[in-house]
Write a structure and sequence with these properties.
By secondary structure, the chain is mainly α. It contains seven helices and no strands.
Amino acid sequence: MRAEEFDALATAHQQAVLRTARRLLRQDEDAMDAVQEVFVRLLRSHANVRGDLGAWLYRVTVNICNDQFRRIKPTVELLAHAVDPAPGPECLLRLKERKRLFREGLGVLTKRERAAVVLRYIKGYSAAEVGTILNVKEVTVRRHIHSARTKLSGYVCSVL
């Protein structure tokens, strides 16, 4: 791969990979290390990438984050996105509380449940796409999401 091609790919996908890594690892420095490793792997194995590059990048990102997660004990650092483009003060207060509860709730999930929830609800992938990214069957993704929803129901009732 030529340097110009790699630079273009890295520029196009870096922010999305970084956001995913931040949501999974919940710590900026660890997420930046993961992003660097993702692009090192892309540089090394670009010839072996088949199909959708975005799905490949997410799969590698999740795998690297899982590896890092085993080595470190992360702290909560996830920001859920706002739905209302121009919320009022009361809505902002409720949203802030829901974000806090959601971040707190993610701490009770397993890494597989957390990955499924982040990819499905925050990144917007279908359950089938999440299965492809995580290299598991769609039914397994649905089980992880169901389990996560059950655990999170005590934290945030209407986020998911």
